[in-house]
Design goal:
Elements: H1 4-14, H2 17-37, E1 45-48, H3 61-69, E2 77-82, H4 83-88, H5 90-102, E3 106-112, E4 129-132, H6 134-140, H7 144-159, E5 163-166, H8 172-180, E6 185-186, H9 197-205
Parallel strand pairs: 1-2, 2-3, 3-4, 4-5, 5-6
């Protein structure tokens, strides 16, 4: 098993990361198409994208062509970029995300709070979902002040019109905390570690 942190930096440094983005996107489209043809229920799937995509001339056209090729609705795919990527190329990424939304896809901001701050631009960043980095939970759940701070972050982001997902969930206590904070969703090892597509299909689509 070769993990992403081993090969992604190499692809980014050689300029091949956009090819990987498109490859993964098409693999997901094929997966959805196969399950649709089998009569299984479909669930929307989020696909990571690199900030390098924002530097391309017509970055979303090939994505739309892939969806058309496999007869998949754009609403079944979500494009996810990290906060660090958005901060580093804000204007270009904003145009990129707007283009994806114009094509009918959902967009999300991953690892919010992990690196540079987007707070001054949050009012108009074109994403549907903000994913709070796991550091928010680990640092804020140990005492009442931290919990109050996390609650205010969740409510602030929701009031701005975004869905809020908290990352890095590893215990039942964390799940219950997020429910008490009215967080929209959560992801982490408590629910599942990364699994092969075939297992995902058996577990969630064929039931």
């Amino acid at each position: 098993m070769v993990y992403p942190d081993q090969f992604i930096p190499i692809l980014e440094s050689t300029g091949r990361i956009v090819e990987l983005d498109l490859y993964i996107f098409e693999q997901v489209a094929q997966f959805l198409q196969r399950n649709a043809q089998a009569g299984h229920r479909l669930l929307p799937i989020a696909v990571n994208a690199s900030v390098a995509l924002a530097r391309e001339d017509a970055p979303t056209q090939e994505y739309s062509e892939i969806l058309e090729k496999h007869n998949i609705s754009a609403r079944m795919l979500e494009i996810e970029l990290t906060e660090t990527a958005v901060v580093s190329e804000y204007d270009r990424v904003k145009r990129l995300l707007s283009s994806f939304q114009s094509d009918g896809m959902q967009t999300s901001l991953d690892d919010f709070g992990a690196g540079g701050s987007l707070l001054n631009n949050m009012v108009d960043i074109p994403v549907n979902t903000i994913k709070l980095d796991k550091l928010f939970l680990t640092r804020c759940s140990s005492n009442a002040r931290g919990t109050d701070f996390l609650r205010e972050i969740v409510h602030l982001v929701k009031r701005l019109g975004y869905n809020v997902i908290c990352e890095g969930i590893e215990t039942e206590e964390q799940v219950q905390l997020l429910r008490s904070l009215d967080c929209d969703g959560a992801q982490g090892f408590w629910f599942s570690k990364a699994i092969p597509a075939e297992e995902f299909e058996r577990r969630y689509l064929c039931s």
